[in-house]
Amino acid sequence: MFGFSCWLLIGSFSIIYSVVNCLWCIVFIEYWKRQEEDLSCRWQTKGVSAVREKRREFKPEKEIRDESTGEIKGVFPATTRMCRQLLQVPFALLSVIALGVIIATCFAIEIFISEIYNGPLKSYLIFIPTILLSALIPTMSSVLVSVATKLNDYENYETQQAYHVALTQKIFVINFITSYLPVFLTAFVYVPFASRIVPHLDIFQVTVRPFVSKEDATTSRTEFSMDPDRLRKQVIYFTVTAQVVSFAMETIVPFLKQRLLREYKEYLRKKNGKVESDSSSEEEESPEALFDDHPDETKFLVRVRNEADLSDYDVTDDLREMCIQFGYLALFSPVWPLVPVSFLINNWVELRSDFFKICVECKRPWPQRAETIGPWLDSLGFLSWVGSITTAALAYMFSTSHEGPGGEPTTIKGWALLLTIFFCEHIYLIVRYAVRAAMAKLEPANVRKEKTERYLLRKRYLESTFGARSSDDEIDVDEKEDKSEKLSQLTRDTLEDDARSWATHDTDPAERFWMRQKGWREASQVGATIIRTLKKDANAKKQQ
Question: Do residue 405 and residue 270 come from a single domain?
Fold first, then answer.
């Protein structure tokens, strides 16, 4: 509701909203870490990440014998893997260049057609950039993801967890470029420098010159006017329209496709069965008869076979979507303060659509024990840090004091912009450290409960250990008094007699010593009796 209030009362690019948004991002991430620890104790999954599952595809370079266990294990030198990991640098540059060129080109075509071109078929040509992006971006992303997977395989990670972390980081780079680069171009290239860059896009008139006259092809450079509302429209598209389209492509389209495919298979089965029955006099054999199912189990087994044909439910896709959504909120929500409201509604619908997919469209996912969301939490922290930079830049560039008559930012000084970003980033780091320290002092309930149970378990163990040793010494008060009287009668002669009797046995001296120690209480009584006896002997000698 804070975003709705800011949109209603303050408007876009509010410094108050930007500060609160950055603070919320910090608190959210630190609170998430605290909740992870709390839930891992509640669900008894704490420490499961220490159990590392080895990859079957791991290829050791050599085998050595473990000195502690004595078993043979394969190893892969860390230096070799590090050299292979250096290939991530050209891969990241390749991803930025490939996706950046496609997005920037489509972005330039869109600006040219929508704001410069004034010829025929403009209402249809305006869809060319969207068609190009829809066709090229998924294709290029698929190619880059397959390259990232092969590169990850080449790095030869020993455990499944390390492999998953490295692959997630590579995919995050690709998603970061495809999701945020168009908005970055609009915010930091188009809006500030449109009056200087866009008129040079007249080179595109070469493509339309054979079809229209030069006078009708484009407007003159002086007639160009920058659309200051373009950034807000683009943010609304990515946070509302794109989310609706993604929901339809992920839930509705697969459901319809699954139903149509099932109907088509049923149609083919009936058609083939009819042809076989017409061509031969044999009775048609149903699928249930082929599997030799029991009549009472037929309905259940048919449902099981249908579910086996469904696709797997991938939780990683949900984490990726939520991470991208958090990025839009952290980086660009000051442009349109209703972004949190939009995501709240979207997540309410998305949660129920995921339930629907699990129940209807996908196989039942098998549970995996985990104590954290892994590398996605690092991605959230990175987006929050980048958000502190972009929020400061947007608030400085697009505040009302820097807007020109056309809505474009004016009187922007480079040193002032860099100084604003520098101070805001360091304030962000200080606040994050303070919030992290404050959260560390608030111990979750389940963590506190686990510590209490651990303490009681250790206490019971110690009590049982010492209780077993002293169980023979737990006697009544009368027996203790009688025992003390008997022990008081011990003299040097009786002790020497006991020593002679033990010497007759073939035992080790240490064993004989410990065999005498039946408990700490008796040992203390024996010691006290010996001390009193020695004192009496010493006093008697002095008197003599």
Answer: yes
